[in-house]
Design a protein that fits this description.
Layout: H1 10-21, H2 25-38, E1 43-49, E2 55-60, H3 67-72, H4 100-106, E3 109-115, E4 122-128, E5 131-138, E6 143-149, H5 156-160, H6 165-182, E7 187-192, E8 195-200, H7 205-213, E9 221-227, E10 232-238, E11 250-254, E12 257-259, H8 262-271, E13 284-289, E14 295-296, E15 307-308, H9 311-328, H10 380-388, E16 428-431, E17 435-440, E18 443-448, H11 449-467, E19 472-482, H12 485-493, H13 495-501, E20 504-508, E21 512-519, H14 527-540, H15 549-561, H16 571-581, E22 597-601, H17 602-608
Parallel strand pairs: 1-7, 11-13
Antiparallel strand pairs: 1-2, 2-6, 3-4, 3-6, 4-5, 7-8, 9-10, 10-13, 11-12, 14-15, 16-17, 17-18, 18-22, 19-21, 20-21
Helix pairs in contact: 1-4, 2-6, 6-7, 8-9, 11-13, 11-15, 11-16, 14-15
C-alpha cells in the first residue's frame, strides 16, 4: 500500500498558521501594536482604511531592525524573545513566538520600512503571500513602519466571513483600547479613513482611562490599591450607579498584558454583590502584578488567556480588595450597629451655637377664678352677634308634626346591572403580569406581552425607516448624552438611519451628542438606554456584512422600548396589544425569531380532567 502521509508545502503551512493568529483585521492590529511596544517605542501611530480590509499601518519610533533582522522577521518561529523552553515562564514582552509577521505575510501584501539609530539608511521589504517581491535601501526615520494591505487577498473564503466595516472597526478599537490602557506612558494615535479617532498623550493610568473613554469617566472611577506577597493590585472600578447592561469597559492586565478571565471577573461581580441592579455589569480597569514564573501565557494562540498557579488565592485577594475600596469610599452600604443617625448633627447646624429653650409663664393666671368672668380678649359685641344666630330656633317638642310628612314613591325600575341588561364582557386578562390571555372559539390564546409588543414596535419602526414617515416630538430643552469616542463613532455612522426613526440631532462631537427631538412614544429618560442597547447590538448581534441598518435599528429600538414582563397592564392596553399584534405581518414570531403566542384548545383542557 502506498504511503499517504506527506509534508505540507510551506505556503500552505503558513496559511494554516495564519488562521490561528489572524482571525480578522483586529488580530493584525494587535500583533503590530505589540511589536511596536516591544521595540521600545514612545510614540505609536495606527492608520486604518475600510476597517482594516484595505490597509492597516503601524508607525513607531522604536529601535528598528537591521537588514538581516528585517528579512528574518518574516520567517516562522524567528524570535529574539526566547532561546530555551524555560524562557516561556519568564516573559516580560508581548510577542515571543515569532509567528506574527510570518502569518500576516502569508495572507496579505506587507510592506516594511525600518531603520536603527546606528544606521544612516533603512530597509524597505515587500512581501506578498509569503513571497519576497523586493528589498531596497530607503531613507526612513528611526523605528519601523509596517503596512498590511489587501488582507486575505489569496483566501477569498476567509474574507467573506468578515463582518461589516462598523463591526470590524469596533473590534479594532477594542484591541487599540487594550494596548493603550496597558501602556499609559506611550503616546498613541489612531486614524480611520483619514479622520482622527484617538490622540492620546502619555500620562498616568487614570489620565489614560479618561482620555480614552471621555471626560465623564473621571467621576465614575473608584481607586483600588492592594499589595501582598502573591500579587499587587492597582487600578480603578466603576461606581455602581454607572454600571451597564454590556460588559464593554472591563479590563484585566496581568504584567501589562490584557487577559480574559471569567473566573476573575466573577470575583469582581462578587465584590459588587448587593449594590448592582440585576442584569447590570460594573466597569473596571485593574492591573495585576505577579511573578512571571507563577503564570503560563503560552496556552492560547491569541495569548489572552493565562493559567495561574494559585487562582483561588488571587480570587480571594481581588474580591477583598475591590470590596474594601467600595466600602472605604462609601460606595457600598456599611452596617454600624453602634451608631445612631438620630444623634448626627445636621449639615445646616455644623459649628453653630446651641441655646437652651426659653419658657414664659403667666404668673397672674388663676384656674380657680370665677368661670363667668369674661376673658380680657373676649369682645362683647362679637358675643351678641353670635347669640343672635340662634334667635327663633328654640326647641319645640312637637312629635305630631311628623305625622303630616308625606312620602313620595317612584315606580321601581330594574337595576342597570340586571341580567336583562347587555353588558360588555372582558375578553382579556393578564396572568402573572407576563402573559395576556384571550378567549377564542376553540379555546384560549396565551400571548407573551413583551414579545408581542416588540413585534408591534419592530414593524412600526421598520415601516417608518423604510418610507421615511417618522414623527418627532420636540424637546423643551436640548438633551445632551455623553458616550466614549468609539461609541460615538458607531452612532455617527447610524445618524442618518436614526433620523429616519424620529431622532433629531443638533450637535455631534467626539464625546457628546445633543438631541432636540426624539420619536413619538420614546421618553426622554429612555434615550440613553436605547442608544446603549443599539451600540451593544451593533457590536455583538450583526449577522453578516450585508445586514440592513434599518432592520438592525428597528430591532434594537423595539427591544429597548417594548413593555417588559412584570408590568401590569390595564384592560384597554391588553386589548390594544392583542388587536395590534394580529394586524402585523408576522404576529407569531418576535424579531428575534421567538414564539409570541400559543393556543390551548378546549379538547386539551378536557383531557386534563379525565
Amino acid at each position: 500500500m502506498a504511503d499517504i502521509i506527506q509534508l505540507l508545502p510551506d505556503h500552505v503551512a503558513n496559511q494554516i498558521a495564519a488562521g490561528e493568529v489572524v482571525q480578522r483585521p483586529a488580530s493584525v492590529v494587535k500583533e503590530l501594536l505589540e511589536n511596536a511596544i516591544d521595540a521600545g517605542a514612545t510614540t505609536v501611530k495606527l492608520l486604518v482604511k475600510n476597517a482594516g480590509k484595505i490597509l492597516i499601518q503601524v508607525i513607531d519610533d522604536g529601535k528598528g531592525m537591521s537588514v538581516t533582522d528585517a528579512r528574518l522577521s518574516f520567517e516562522r518561529h524567528a524570535t529574539s524573545k526566547i532561546k530555551v523552553a524555560d524562557d516561556l515562564f519568564n516573559l516580560h514582552t508581548k510577542g515571543f513566538r515569532g509567528e506574527a509577521l510570518a502569518s500576516i505575510a502569508a495572507i496579505a501584501h506587507v510592506e516594511m520600512k525600518t531603520k536603527q539609530a546606528s544606521d544612516e539608511l533603512g530597509t524597505l521589504l515587500s512581501v506578498e503571500g509569503s513571497v519576497f517581491t523586493s528589498q531596497e535601501v530607503v531613507a526612513t526615520p528611526i523605528g519601523s513602519s509596517i503596512a498590511v494591505k489587501n488582507l486575505f487577498f489569496n483566501i477569498p473564503a476567509r474574507r467573506n466571513f468578515l463582518k461589516s466595516d462598523t463591526v470590524e472597526l469596533r473590534h479594532i478599537i477594542d484591541e487599540f483600547h487594550r494596548a493603550v490602557l496597558a501602556h499609559p506612558t506611550i503616546s498613541f494615535s489612531m486614524y480611520h479613513n483619514g479622520s482622527d479617532l484617538f490622540n492620546l498623550l502619555k500620562g498616568n493610568f487614570r489620565q489614560r482611562i479618561v482620555s480614552t473613554f471621555g471626560g465623564k469617566m473621571n467621576e465614575k472611577l473608584v481607586p483600588v490599591e492592594e499589595t501582598t506577597e502573591v500579587l499587587t493590585i492597582s487600578g480603578f472600578v466603576g461606581k455602581p450607579e454607572y454600571s451597564k447592561k454590556s460588559r464593554g469597559e472591563q479590563f484585566f492586565f496581568v504584567n501589562n498584558r490584557f487577559i480574559k478571565s471569567p473566573y476573575l471577573n466573577h470575583a469582581i461581580s462578587a465584590a459588587f454583590e448587593g449594590v448592582l441592579q440585576p442584569g447590570k455589569h460594573p466597569c473596571y480597569f485593574l492591573n495585576l502584578e505577579v511573578d512571571p514564573k507563577s503564570i503560563d501565557i503560552n496556552i492560547h494562540p491569541t495569548k489572552t488567556e493565562i493559567k495561574f498557579d494559585d487562582e483561588q488565592t488571587i480570587y480571594a485577594i481581588l474580591r477583598a480588595a475591590v470590596k474594601h475600596s467600595l466600602g472605604q469610599f462609601s460606595i457600598a452600604p456599611v452596617l454600624d450597629f453602634e451608631r445612631d443617625k438620630n444623634l448626627d448633627t445636621p449639615y445646616g447646624f455644623e459649628g453653630g451655637q446651641t441655646a437652651l429653650p426659653k419658657v414664659e409663664v403667666d404668673r397672674a393666671f388663676n384656674p380657680f377664678s370665677n368661670s363667668n368672668q369674661t376673658p380680657p380678649s373676649y369682645s362683647k359685641s362679637a358675643g351678641d352677634a353670635w347669640e343672635g344666630l340662634y334667635v327663633g330656633l328654640e326647641s319645640k317638642s312637637n312629635t305630631d308634626s311628623f305625622s303630616q310628612v308625606n312620602y313620595e314613591s317612584d315606580e321601581m325600575t330594574s337595576s342597570i346591572f340586571d341580567d336583562s341588561t347587555e353588558q360588555k364582557v372582558q375578553k382579556t386578562f393578564q396572568l402573572h403580569n407576563k402573559y395576556i390571555i384571550n378567549t377564542i372559539k376553540s379555546g384560549m390564546l396565551v400571548i407573551d406581552q413583551n414579545r408581542a409588543h416588540e413585534r408591534i414596535l419592530y414593524e412600526e419602526f421598520l415601516r417608518k425607516t423604510t418610507v421615511n414617515e417618522a414623527v418627532s416630538q420636540q424637546l423643551l430643552f436640548p438633551l445632551e448624552l455623553k458616550f466614549s469616542n468609539s461609541d460615538n463613532t458607531i452612532l455617527k455612522d447610524l445618524q442618518q438611519a436614526l433620523e429616519t426613526t424620529g431622532f433629531v440631532f443638533s450637535t455631534f462631537t467626539d464625546e457628546s451628542i445633543e438631541l432636540t427631538g426624539v420619536p413619538v412614544g420614546v421618553k426622554e429618560s429612555e434615550v440613553h438606554i436605547v442608544f446603549e442597547q443599539l451600540i451593544h447590538d451593533i457590536e455583538h448581534e450583526v449577522p453578516d456584512v450585508n445586514f440592513s441598518v434599518s432592520d438592525l435599528l428597528s430591532k434594537s429600538l423595539a427591544k429597548s422600548l417594548a413593555i417588559k414582563n412584570g408590568k401590569k397592564l390595564e384592560r384597554e392596553e391588553q386589548e390594544h396589544i392583542v388587536n395590534t399584534l394580529f394586524s402585523c405581518k408576522e404576529p407569531s414570531i418576535s424579531p428575534a425569531n421567538k414564539t409570541v403566542f400559543t393556543t390551548l384548545k378546549v379538547e386539551e383542557l378536557d383531557k386534563k380532567f379525565n
